[in-house]
Amino acid sequence: ALRFFGVGSVDAWREALSTPTVQYRSNKAKGKYPGFVAAWLRMGELQAEAIDCQSFNGQEFRRLLQHDIRALTTTSSSVWCKRLPELCAQAGVAVVITKEVPKAAVSGAKRWLPKKETHLIQLSLKFKTDDQLWFSFYHEAAHVLLHGKRKLYVDYGAGDETDEEREASAFARDILIPPEHKAELRHLRSKMSIRRFASSIGVSPGIVVGRLQHDGLIPPTHCNDLKTRYVWK
User: Fold this and answer.
1) Considering only CA atoms, which of 126, 125, 111, 132 is closest in space to residue 38?
2) Tens digit of each residue's pLDDT (9 = 90 or more) over 14-70
3) For residues 57 and 143, what is the distance between their CA atoms, to the nearest angstrom?
């Protein structure tokens, strides 16, 4: 276990666990099963070691988020699972997808890896749908661009309870469905209209459904068949 965590003693592990400044998306999650969360985070670090990243370029990362990466939301997992890390590495951001650890319940995290001098965005398939996964990715990407480099952000997919978390969620919301299209959401009454709208703005129908459900424009039980569901092979 010590070799896995890269430390020499249990005391060193506890010190490393308590050292980072951690920002939780929900205070309700703070302190829950820290060992399980630490294991999941460490798994992501080990995955990131295999990724060859360029130096971080915030301007390029923002451009990719708005164009090339956003377009991946309409592709199959066999495409975006490969292409997303490649694109992000060009801008100095390592992206990994790590299988869930029982009791960790983390949907995403962002942190700085000093040894690699790069940002790391780590995602899980906690909610198993495309709208949740892409929102989590863009939420963590917002932390990369907008907030402290040295902070560790841990996302349980709960409510936004700090200014930074609200800012990150607004960033994700407005890239996936730009504000100039917000008024059109109220007129989406059928699955066909949702598909047409999603195609017109270049995102997956599932992302539109997730936004409609979040805004209370349709019930959470409606149109879920338009979402893409992900499972681990």
Assistant:
1) 111
2) 887 765 555 555 555 555 677 888 899 999 999 999 999 999 999 999 999 999 999
3) 14
What is the arrangement of strands in the sheet containing 152-155, beginning at the earlier edge strand?
22-24, 152-155, 108-113, 118-123, 93-97
Q: Give the pLDDT of residue 162.
A: 83
Instruction: Name the pTM for this structure.
Output: 0.92
Radius of gyration of the chain (CA): 18
| CA-CA-CA-CA dihedral for 96, 81, 195, 129, to nearest 10 | -50
Residue 159 DSSP symbol: -
Q: How far is Cα 139 from Cα 153, in angstroms, rounded to an integer?
A: 10
- CA dist 44 and 39 (Å) reads 9
Instruction: Work out the percent of the chain whose per-residue pLDDT is above 90.
Output: 70
The pair of structure tokens assigned to 191 is 């699955």
Residue 233 amino acid letter: K
Q: Using CA atoms, how far apart are residues 141 and 138, in angstroms rounded to an integer? A: 5
The structure tokens listed for 22 are 């951690």
- The whole-angstrom separation of Cα 91 and Cα 26 is 29
Amino acid at 35: G
Rounded Cα distance between 60 and 47, Å, is 23
- Contact by Cβ (8 Å): 171, 203: no
